Amino acid sequence: MAYHSTSGTADNTNDFLVKLKDFLTTVVGWTLHDDGSAEPDPYHVLKSVGESGIEDIYLQFINDANTDRIVVRGSLFWDATAHAGVKEAFHNSYTYIRTVDASQFLYWFFADLDHVLVVTKVAATYYGHYSGLINRFWSGAVAVTQIAVSPGSDVLLQVNDASIFTVDRYYLIKDDSGIERVQITAVDTGVTPNTVTVVNLANAYAVGAKIGEDPQPVIIGRYQSPGSFYALNKFDGWSSTTGQAGSSAAAHGNFQNASNPDKRYGLLTMFPWLVAHTSSAYKELRGELIEVYAIGSGAADSEDVLDMSGATYRIFNISGPGWCAVKE
Q1: Nearest to 29 by CA among 51, 12, 7
Q2: Strands 96-98 and 84-89: what pairing?
Q3: What's the whole-model pTM score?
Q4: Which of 188, 212, 236 delimits the end of a domain?
Q5: pLDDT tens-digit readout, 172-214
Q6: pLDDT for res 300
Q7: Do 125 and 196 reside in the same domain of the chain?
Q8: Which pLDDT tens digit goes with each residue over 290-317?
Q9: What are 304-307's contacts with CB under 8 Å, separation 24+?
Q10: Which listed residue, 12, 171, 259, 268, has the most CB atoms within 10 A of its CB?
């Protein structure tokens, strides 16, 4: 996995927006999908196919009329001609990166083709923001439809690879305009192209639609990440911009300070941040954040670097989640 990090000083919010765009496109390898830098509320939409090459990640970063922030939104698809997102995920009050409009501030960027984690320092306070894919607990494998399909019952779909499916199991199907949950009742890998049959299809889907256990598990974090977020989808699709809410919690059981480091061998333990939807209507433990960990408060000072078996991690006491270690 190609993982990158950098740090520096932004002159103001707009300078920060440019620096973030440049880092993700020229260093990490994201694509500038829509350039709205000349708009009254300047924005950039960045696209990535992920480290696997089969993902669909669209993140919009906006310097809007709100003070001291870069708003972040995600979408199922971004139409660069209409300059509009399809089935977006965001919250007007929470999904942003904390910045300063009128003076300099420090920043740290950590990213690969799957996600980006931003830390900013405003006065003496560190703020985190995480957006992009998670390390999903379900399979990321997808089959791609070979022909367009219409709504109906017992719908036969031609796909490039039906071997990833299990009869009677549920999956998500998505394209650039829609997403829904389907149940597969038949699989045929003996024909070319392979076929699968679904019980019911509520919407039409274009050639190139993807079907899998958990396609596009993109989350848009709040300004105090790791913590609460809004996902692009849940187990049965998309309902609204904030209709797929969730939260991250460190997997330490409040024992992080028992290993910061421990007394036996001076060892430090880093704990993953788990990702879950906790609403009773769509609850599930879905995965974990990528390369960000919870640690105890005595491990180091903010901005220090830990060397863990040859890999280095930058330490921050982030407003909200507390002490975190982020891979450099």
Answers
A1: 51
A2: unpaired
A3: 0.97
A4: 212
A5: 999 999 999 999 999 999 999 999 999 999 999 999 999 999 9
A6: 86
A7: no
A8: 999 999 998 889 999 998 888 999 999 9
A9: 306/268
A10: 171
Q: Which domain holds residue 161?
A: 142-212
| In contact, 158 and 194? CB cutoff 8 Å | yes
Residues 245/227, Cβ–Cβ less than 8 Å? no
Q: What percent of the chain clears pLDDT 90, i.e. is strictly above it?
A: 96
Overall average pLDDT of the 73-77 stretch: 98
Is there a single domain that holds both residue 255 and residue 206? no
Measured CA to CA, the distance from residue 70 to residue 116 in angstroms comes to 14
- Let me know whether 247 and 130 are in one domain: yes
* SS3 label, residue 14: helix
Instruction: Specify the residue for token string 């699989």.
Output: 187
326: Cα within 13 Å, side-chain hemisphere? 31
**The token pair that represents 136 in the structure block:** 């999903």
At 207, list the tokens.
Answer: 């050639």
pLDDT band at 138 (very low <50, low <70, confident <90, very high): very high
Residues with Cβ within 8 Å of 205's Cβ and at least 6 positions away in sequence, in order, are 145, 148, 149, 173, 174, 175, 178
Q: What is the C-alpha to C-alpha distance for residues 57 and 48, in angstroms, rounded to an integer?
A: 5
Joined tokens for residue 70? 């870069």
Question: By CB neighbour count within 10 A (0-12 exposed, 13-18 middle, 19+ buried), where does 54 fall?
Answer: middle
Q: Are residues 177 and 221 in the same domain?
A: no
Mean pLDDT of 102-130: 98
Distance (Å) of CA 251 to CA 83, 127, 133, 248, 327: 40, 21, 19, 9, 17
- Both 204 and 221 in one domain: the answer is no
Residue pLDDT, tens place only, 177-188? 999 999 999 999
Both 282 and 163 in one domain: the answer is no
pLDDT of residue 1: 52
